[in-house]
Amino acid sequence: MESIAALDTQVFFFLNGLHTTWLDPIMYYLTNTLTSLPVYILIIYLLFKKFRSKIWIPLICIIVCIALTDRITSGIMKPAFARLRPTHEPLVAEKVHTVKNYKGGRFGFASSHAANTFGIAMLTFLLLRNQYRAAGLLFIWAGLISYTRIYLGVHYPGDILVGAGIGLVCGLILFKLFKAVSQRLAILNTR
User: Fold this and answer.
1) Which residues does 167 contact at the CB level (< 8 Å), separation at least 6?
2) Residue 9 C-beta-side C-alpha neighbours within 13 Å
3) How far apart are CA 4 and CA 25, in angstroms?
4) Best exposed site among 40, 58, 78, 104 by fewest CB in 10 Å?
5) What would the pLDDT profile of 128-147 be if each residue is shown by its tens digit?
6) pLDDT tens-digit series, residues 47-83
7) Can you tell me the distance from the alpha carbon of 137 to that of 187, in angstroms, rounded to the nearest whole number?
8) Which three-class secondary structure state does DSSP give residue 84?
9) H or E segment at 16?
10) Which residue ranges make up each domain of the chain?
11) Closest Cα partner for 176 from 122, 132, 136, 140?
12) Are the CB atoms for 137 and 46 separated by under 8 Å?
């Protein structure tokens, strides 16, 4: 585990070190959840075009997916593992590039930003992939949001990878739940 942690720290410093003055405010802006509002509006619009009056089913699945990924990462993993963020780790904090002195909460494993965005990306992709090939671009959005967390110095790459994995799995589970509910409602509607 120590060698994995050492590699995680090395990769973190490489990625965190790829900063420039002009990019700092952009990354700080992108990491804010409200910045993704246009993406969320687009998702809702595309879901409405596909599902019309039944849009409530995929929307509930997305809300449950976010609640699940957030609960797993912030509610269970961060307190259980208590892995300090780079900005709070005494041995490395002074070397971390931060923006506007943003340091995040004390613990960072696993990344809620990565889990939430990859969960939304996976579930939405699975819901829309047959109608909109560009739905795969949501994974680029999730990756960019996740990278901002390393850039800002508040997550190690391992935090991001585990968070993304949790999001992908939760998105897949919620898609299967969506299919089961949709099939059940279709059966009920035909009786």
Assistant:
1) 69, 114, 115, 116, 117, 118, 119, 120, 121, 122, 142
2) 17
3) 31
4) 40
5) 999 999 999 999 999 999 99
6) 999 999 999 999 999 999 999 999 999 999 999 999 9
7) 33
8) strand
9) helix 2-16
10) 43-190
11) 122
12) no
pTM over 0.90: yes
pLDDT at 191: 47
Q: What is the Cα gyration radius of the chain? A: 18
CA atoms within 13 A on the CB side of 176: 5
Residue 151 token pair:
């850039």
Distance of CA 166 to the CA centre of its chain: 9
DSSP letters for 92-129: TGGG---STT----SB-SS-HHHHHHHHHHHHHHHHHT
pLDDT reading at 186 higher than 70: yes
Has residue 28 got a pLDDT over 90?
A: yes
